[in-house]
Amino acid sequence: MEEKIYNLITKMYLEFTEFRKDITARVEQNTSEIKKLGNRVASLKNEFSTKTGVLSDGYKQLDSKFDRLEAKLDSVTNTVEKQAVEIRVIQGSKI
Q1: Which residues of 51-72 are buried (b: 16+ CB within 10 A; e: fewer)?
Q2: 5 vs 1, 9, 11, 12, CA distance in Å?
Q3: Rounded CA gap, 73 and 71, in Å?
């Protein structure tokens, strides 16, 4: 009877040891994968930061150019309006 109990305990100990080794290996593998994912996330964050900075700079440049074009268009519009008035005045004096 004692020998059966001893054999059972020995068997349970061996199974527990194998189970523990398996769990330890899985935890180490998961830890490694988590570190890789963390590194990839950091890399993506840096890449995203750089690209959004470039996009922001491009937007600012386009906005600045748009403002200059708008000012030039306003100037041309004012000139055309003045010339239209002058043409009417000239045409009116000829009649």
Answers
A1: eeeeeeeeeeeeeeeeeeeeee
A2: 6, 6, 10, 10
A3: 5
pTM above threshold 0.70: no
Amino acid (one-letter) located at 80: V
Angle at 19 between CA 16 and CA 21, to 5 degrees: 110
The DSSP-derived string for 26-76 is HHHHHHHHHHHHHHHHHHHHHHHHHHHHHHHHHHHHHHHHHHHHHHHHHHH
Q: Distance (Å, rounded) from C-alpha 83 to C-alpha 4?
A: 115
pLDDT in tens, 19-75: 999 999 999 999 999 999 999 999 999 989 888 988 999 999 999 999 999 999 999
